Amino acid sequence: MANRWTFFVDKDGVLRHVERSVDAGAHGKQIAKKLEELGVPRK
User: What is the pTM of this model?
Assistant: First the structure.
């Protein structure tokens, strides 16, 4: 079975985090939580 990874890259092109345990059903919430943890402002 294929695995899905998400890469979080900041505006300067620096890799900030790699999410290796992706739950496709809840991934949107996982992304929002990680962006908040990384200090990315909400739009």
Answer: 0.80
What's the CA gap between 31 and 2, in Å, rounded?
A: 19
Per-residue pLDDT tens digits for 1-43: 668 899 999 999 999 999 999 988 999 999 999 999 999 998 8
Beta-sheet strands, E only, within 1-43: 6-9, 15-19
Q: Which residues contact 22 (CB under 8 A, 6 or more apart)?
A: 3, 4, 5, 6, 30
Q: How far is CA 10 from CA 2, 5, 23, 28, 42, in A?
A: 26, 16, 22, 18, 14
